[in-house]
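User: what does the whole thing look like in 3D?
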Amino acid sequence: MKKTKKYYWENRELIIIGTFAALIKIVSFLVSITGGGMNPIAMIMKNIIATALLVVLVANIRKFGVLMLYVTIASLISIITFGRGLMIAPGMILAGLICDLIIKLAGGYKSNFAIILGVAFFDIMFRIISLALGYLFTRENPQLMLFAFVAVGVGYIGCVIGLFVGNYFAKELRHAGIIRM
Amino acid sequence: MSAVVLKYKTMLKNKFQISDNYLSNLNTLTKLIFAIFFSVFIIFLTNKFALLFLFVCSFIYVLPLKKFKTMMFFYLLIAIMFGLSLFFSFLLGLAMKKMGGNADFKMIVPFLRIAITINFSIALILSSKTKKLVNILKTLKFPRVLFLPIIVIFRFVPLFARDMKQIHESIKIRIGAFNFFTMLLNPFLFIRIMMAPTVIRALRSADELAAAAELKGISDTKKITNSSPESFEFKDAIILIAGATVAYICLILNFINL
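Assistant: Here's the predicted 3D structure for the full assembly of 439 residues, as structure tokens:
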């Protein structure tokens, strides 16, 4: 009988990462459209949902490298579908790896606190890298970055709320048996 | 009889639309190379004439698609965002008496950079079918850890759209029409009624897709091959050479510093 090769990442886990990468992109986009784009409520709401989904993803797949793989896939999708994101991808992958290490060092993937800490750091690093790239695009006129700073600051409030919402959701989903430990 | 005529009319119309548009007939990889290369290249350009020249070339490149409304929408969006940024800077300048309202704003350069990337993105997205984009992954021979989730993303979107429609219908039955004001007045209700069913549906869909992948033998060690590869033709070479020439002219314009 033919032996099946054992992989570090199981098919189910890879598919969940893909599903969540799509889900985060689509839901964020839908909330932005519903909210009319650049209004603070929509920006906060979008970030609450995106961060909460990311917490649920890490809580569902408790393996080292999950954030890095998620970021790699999200970046590749941006590159393949829009031809954009090549400049930001290396920084983001590195940020994903650092945050995976933070989770591992802060108590491992079994600890909810470590997951929240890792995702919180990931959100911060994601915003810093995006702002740095934004600066490269608008470096002739740094005043343009001011609005970006305000928008990112408002968005990060949503991320902080999203961390707790995600944790609550992960607990409930685990309780309901939808997320397996 | 009229049904048959209509069928042939539609077929001819579709055929005409595809053959009429040279971008759709280009190799998807060529368009992807263009979009990726120029999204990086524009960062190094600082001269407005070089960027303006590239913008005109990218506009000509995307012109056969005739998506003027989409392009105008994005240009307007960038202009609004920049306008808001400038307004904030102006307010801060007034408050701090440092930046000043008479600062020399070089709006054109950042605007052109973003407009160019948008043009190349529009050309890639609106002229390539999902199947062709997926085939690129097979051509590039990505490892299993990247290939499988990306395929899932492409396949998941229609499934998710159906789920979202069902969730939206259920919400409509329970609390009525769902819009921006619902989100504004009841943000927690919005999160609860939108997120809980969405996450549960997504996790169930992921399980279904995982089972389907196992049944189709995707976990096997065999390499994935491209069943319908796109050929690299003469027109692709012409377009790539034209792109390289445009990049070279842009570099010259950038260093001349007009």
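In plain terms: Chain B touches chain A through 75 residues (CB under 8 Å). The radius of gyration of chain B is 24 Å.
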